[in-house]
Amino acid sequence: MSKKILKEFIFLILALICIIGSKFLPEMWGLSSEALQVLGVFFGSLIMWIGVSIDWPSMITLLALGFIPTFGFSKTFSGAFGNTTVAFLLFTFMLVYPLSKTNFVRRCTISFITNKVARKGPWYFVCFLFAAITFMGLFVSPSVLFVAFMPFLEDIFKVLNVKKGGKTGNMIMMGTAICISLSSGMTAIGHVWPTMAIGYYVSATGNDVNQFQYMAMGIPTGILLIILLILGFKFIYRPDDINDIQPEKAINLRGTVPAADLKEKIILAVVFLTVFLWVGPSLIKNSFPEIYKTINGWSTAMPPLLGCIILFIIHTDKERILDFKEVTTKGILWGSILMTGAATWLGACLTNSDIGISQWLTSTLSPLSARLPVTGMIVFFMTWAIIQTNFSSNIVTTTVVSAVALSVLTALPVGSVNVATVVCMVGFAAAICNMTPAGQSTINTVAIGSGWTTAKSMFIWGAYIAVAGILILSFITYPLASLLVF
Description:
- By secondary structure, the protein is mostly helical.
- Helix content is 71%, strand content 1%.
- It has 22 helices and 2 strands.
- β1 and β2 form a beta hairpin.
- The longest helix has 30 residues, at 455-484.
- The chain is globular.
């Protein structure tokens, strides 16, 4: 038995002890037997998701919750898959898959880094490179974007004569990984953790948070963090070989990518239509309330569903633009879908009033919350979310912190705290995750394994962004978003 299999087996046994053992615990601490069972499933799931995997162990979560009488299997399956969050992610993954197969990533990056301003100097070039990555990351899955972008980044290094082992190459690789991670928190378009945070809030309160509201909070926060990252690189890291970059050489990359064909133009048009249906209604909310109400009632899952149908119908070169078999086997992150379903229902179980965990958390933490000002509680939740997301799954972080935040904050006097802002900020905080390989396994592991950066460098600069994130979210994002957005 290999060390990896043995480690997973140990974690699985520990998880099963938590889940099964909780069924035999007597009532204690003011919690009912079923409440203790839900907590057992909660902690057992955390152990499996962190130590084993995020895909098939989620089936154990659903199985265990189904055996709790209050929920049963009918409610569990309905709660896990009968909601717009899972459908939204499923259709969005399908929609952006054909885009990842085109030359869009290269073409978009080239347009950013070869303009006149980007060619003025090395730091201009770095700024536009990070801007290109961030822009694409607003609507492309971070893992997909990073894997697609890596070969092109190698080409950029080759054209600009950037050497491995130098500080500039290290800086650009770290910046690429951090910008892509941050972009996954700036919008909820095809990004799991912001979508889950919004879903938890809507489910718990019945109030709506739309795509425009989230982006009005997330995009400015992300831009501010990226500016601080670049300033940190320039004035703290200070790469000694930055002036070896000759940005004008990037112009040679223009001839390496063919012009967009009809297929790519159709895909881009459909993606634009989808984004418009998400964002557009919010812009006419006050002017045309009835139209807003109608379109908003379609849910966030409808636009990508419509987009997928269009791409299934249209043919180019005698082939469908979107192939069902291919997209379901290669384009959908089924592990994320399954875990999202399990985590969504688990979060609902944790906050279920009949179970009593929310009331117990409120009474237990009320002495602490009574002594802490609102700002102190926000700093607490942001610190918790950002620390945890750097050492465990982004989805697990969103689930845990959102559930506790909703339980505690909704019990406070009405108007004392903007719960929508805090929960959406948790979704953003889950994307500040570059300190360790566990934080964002695909991105951080591939970046470190590329040879352009090291685990030590990623930890240091991931921590730099983590601290900056706590401060900005707590003292800038919260007051401004509460006042202007939510």
